[in-house]
TrEMBL record:
Protein known as: FAD/FMN-containing dehydrogenase
Family note: Belongs to the FAD-binding oxidoreductase/transferase type 4 family.
Keywords per UniProt: FAD, Flavoprotein
One GO molecular-function entry: catalytic activity
InterPro entries xref list: FAD-bd_oxidored_4_C, FAD-bd_PCMH, FAD-bd_PCMH-like_sf, FAD-bd_PCMH_sub2, FAD-linked_Oxase-like_C, FAD-oxidored/transferase_4, Oxid_FAD_bind_N, Vanillyl_alc_oxidase_C-sub2
Keyword flag Flavoprotein: yes
Gene Ontology biological process terms, A to Z: respiratory electron transport chain
Family annotation (Pfam families): FAD-oxidase_C (PF02913), FAD_binding_4 (PF01565)
Length: 475
């Protein structure tokens, strides 16, 4: 046993300093990418039960010159919250910080700790007829702190924005163990620089989010979903401004599926088509009015041939079933043999041209490779995944990953987009950011990191690839 482990156990107790078999769930990432050379191995997993203990553990790590890897629900997709292979990093799990401190119906806010599971928060708010609008496929496991540290997006960004847009304040433990608290829940507050937005989306490299105040909204009286089939991606993009005009702020979901939808057969509610859309409308009007508005938008589009067919969910159970189909695509891809994933964002008016161009480039470079495209069309975020040619396993296709990534990301850049939309940078895309990021922007990021964490103790090697040794943080 390393001497540092004995010191930590003596200070915090064996039940809060895990290693060996007990540490395994915290070392394995959700996608299973942490294997081989990237396999995670922590010196130990620290499990604080309070903010005071988070501060104490951060200070202890500083005394021992050890790096800390903050972890929430461990649902990240870019190896940002799992340890590297050195066995020298400490994972600091925030799962035990799971208290809802307050739901304020007058201010329409929720104050909760970082380890609260998103779905638990949604349910607690719904019990008081309030809506926490953040929604994503991992909501049954992901945690509030991780959502904010990665500026999570999901399926409701079109109407409500990312996690950043829903946050009014944070509580953060700094790299030297100090506590900064801004949990007033004020909507207008200009006391100097906006520190909140500095920590949101920083993936734990600047500080540890321990609690947050989130905006709430009244729970919708009606919520309707419709599954549409379309002849082309261009048709989906043409429908979006029409849906905005007809449905206004009620339009809360606009999800597109290309060949990815074929993986859901035979569960599809309509015959397979080149493209499908899942549209959601949430309203404070009664269901009959909302349904009339939705159908009034659908009818002329059907008559004009802009969509092939449409089915509207008539019950909440049917709506849940449609959304369950959409959210089952990643699992269906895994069962179909897996693929190489890209989480990208593009200007809406260039998406169709990008997809056509990128698919053509892929076929020239990797004949038979199968792009499977789906995602949050309403906010310009696509999951552009590529499966191996028929008859080839993912393991056989894996050696092409670097070249494929370069091809896809070059195409994204050519069309004015981003190679990282909502999944973040982590370890998986850190080199990509270093190579493709704006030089001035990268310099500013490095200066901020140096100012807030000069010893490079928090999540070294994540986001900012330079300045990481992966072992002792300030050795």
């Amino acid at each position: 046993m390393r001497p540092e482990l004995g010191i930590l156990r003596a200070e915090f107790g064996a039940d809060q300093v895990l290693d060996g078999e007990a540490a395994l769930p915290f070392e394995r990432d959700w996608r299973g990418r942490a294997t081989g050379a990237q396999a995670g191995r922590a010196m130990a997993v620290l499990c604080p039960r309070s903010v005071d203990e988070v501060q104490a553990m951060v200070r202890a790590a500083a005394r021992l010159h050890l790096a800390l890897v903050p972890q929430g629900g461990n649902t990240g997709l870019v190896l940002g919250g799992t340890p590297d292979a050195s066995g020298a990093e400490l994972v600091l799990s925030l799962k035990r910080l799971n208290r809802i401190r307050r739901i304020d119906p007058i201010n329409a806010t929720l104050t909760a700790e970082a380890g609260c599971v998103l779905q638990t928060l949604q349910q607690a708010c719904a019990a008081q007829q309030l809506l926490l609008p953040l929604s994503l496929a991992a909501e049954g496991q992901c945690t509030l702190g991780g959502n904010l540290a990665t500026n999570a997006g999901g399926t409701q960004v079109l109407r409500w924005g990312n996690a950043r847009d829903l946050c009014l304040g944070l509580e953060v433990v700094t790299a030297d163990g100090l506590l900064w608290s801004d949990l007033d829940g004020l909507r207008k507050d200009h006391r100097g620089l906006n520190l909140r937005d500095l920590f949101i989306g920083s993936e734990g490299v600047l500080g540890l989010i321990t609690a947050a105040v989130m905006k709430l909204a009244p729970l919708p009286r009606s919520r309707l979903s419709a599954w549409l089939t379309l002849p082309s991606l261009e048709a989906a993009l043409q429908l979006l401004p029409q849906a905005r005009a007809a449905l206004g702020d009620g339009l809360s979901g606009f999800e597109v599926m290309g060949q990815a939808a074929q993986l859901l057969l035979p569960e599809l509610p309509l015959p397979a088509a080149p493209w499908a859309l899942l549209v959601e409308v949430s309203s404070h009007r009664d269901e009959a009015q909302t349904r009339a508005e939705l159908e009034a938008w659908l009818a002329p589009a059907l008559d004009a041939g802009r969509m092939l067919d449409a089915v509207v969910a008539h019950t909440e159970a049917q709506a849940h079933a449609l959304w369950a189909l959409r959210e089952s695509i990643p699992g269906a891809q895994t069962r179909a043999g897996g693929n190489l994933k890209h989480d990208i964002a593009l200007p809406l008016d260039r998406i169709a041209a990008f997809v056509a161009d990128c698919e053509a480039r892929i076929q020239r470079a990797f004949p038979g490779a199968r792009p499977t495209v789906f995602g949050h069309l309403g906010d310009g975020n696509l999951h552009f995944n590529v499966a191996p040619p028929v008859g080839q396993s993912l393991a056989e296709f894996q050696p092409h990953e670097a070249a494929l990534n370069r091809l896809v990301f070059d195409c994204v850049a050519d069309w004015g987009g981003s190679f990282s939309a909502e999944h973040g940078i982590g370890r998986l895309r850190a080199a990509e950011l270093a190579a493709r990021g704006d030089a001035v922007g990268l310099d500013l990021m490095g200066r901020i990191k140096q100012a807030l964490d000069p010893a490079n103790r928090l999540n070294p090697g994540r986001v900012l690839a330079s300045g990481s040794d992966g072992n002792r943080a300030d050795a």
